[in-house]
Protein: ABC-2 type transport system permease protein
Organism: Paenibacillus methanolicus
Amino acid sequence: MTSSGNNSAARAWTIRRLFRKRVARFWKEQRQVWGTVVDWVVLCYLLFPALIGGVVYAGWWADPPAWMASAPLWAAQLPPMLLAVGARFRTFAEDADMLFLVQRGEWRRGLLLYGFAYTAAGLAVPGLLIYALLLPVLMGVHGMQLSHVALLLAAAWSVSLAGAVWRNRIHGRFRGWRKEACIGAVNVMLILALLLPSLLSAGAQAAAWLGCALAGVGAALLLLRGKLRQDGDFASDVRLEHLARLSGTALLVRDVVQRKPLIRLDKPLVFRRSQRLFRSGAPSVVLAESALKSFLRQWLMIRYWISFLSLGLFAVSQSPLFAQIALALGIPLLVNMMIQNHILNFAGEAFVRQFRWEDGNLRKAGERLRLWLVAPIALMLGAVAGYDAFGFLGLMAGTLLSAAYLWFVNNLTSAFGRLRATRSD
């Protein structure tokens, strides 16, 4: 009876069910990996460029900047080129397949076909996103019809799909410099296939893109046919799948893991000594000063701060008035949250906690630090938005309104901190 149950369970497994289970497990692993580092603070940092990008995108439709009008059509093909040279053919092969699936040709071919369909669908998503972002350039500046944009998308998608299968086959057949040379040659061919139709006259571009799309689909199917008949690249497929599964983890730890066990004595860029910055010896001033030096000694925090400032100024200068107001209000709020998170982490360090700071001193130190680090960004954004809309008088008004808004946000953050502390007690 047990044997019959095992046989029925084995018959219940199909190629589709096996492939679906492997895909679900892959995405579950990726969700668990990213879940270890993504919290609400990180989501706020990710929301910031998305907010700026959305506002700038809307501004491009309403009023395209001058540099966009002078951009050639072939420049719009640069993002799809990155997709074409970076696409991967996912086979979802595993080491244990050597025991059974390699011996069953129909199962191996079935998984390859499902992997081909998965790769094609996966490449369509970033392709749609890329060309959706390029619509202000393609349609607003170059006056392309939506059908021509669809041909561009089809060409980029088919060329990327063919390149993914082609590079997979090269990995299975060559090693060393031959493999790198072949992959480089393939990437050059893919780039030329996407670039050359954009250099033709306007009347011949549509036919060239259609031919490129059809040629890409044909090449992808021919390469897939050869892949189905080729039996000696199973080890290569397993190795490539290991790299694909570990790509998320490698991205997260690229700045954490030391590649070489070298002893490095790094010094901060600023405040290498423990000199005082302010004469006042008030506890809140001393704590705020120490937190400020801790912030400026961390290149990652400085990079975040500079990114908020530079991207914010760029977005405000390229956006209409309603978007400028939204950015001038939203960006200082995000920076305020970042600084508040820094002061809380700093106050929670063991060396700082041993001095037993009073709650009033912590609150005043947080107010000072937020004022020092948020004020430059808030005032500059308000000044740029006001000057762009109303000239010199707008600059003065924008600066004053930003100062008042900063004072309100700073006090609101302190009040929220006191309320949270009261509830915790």
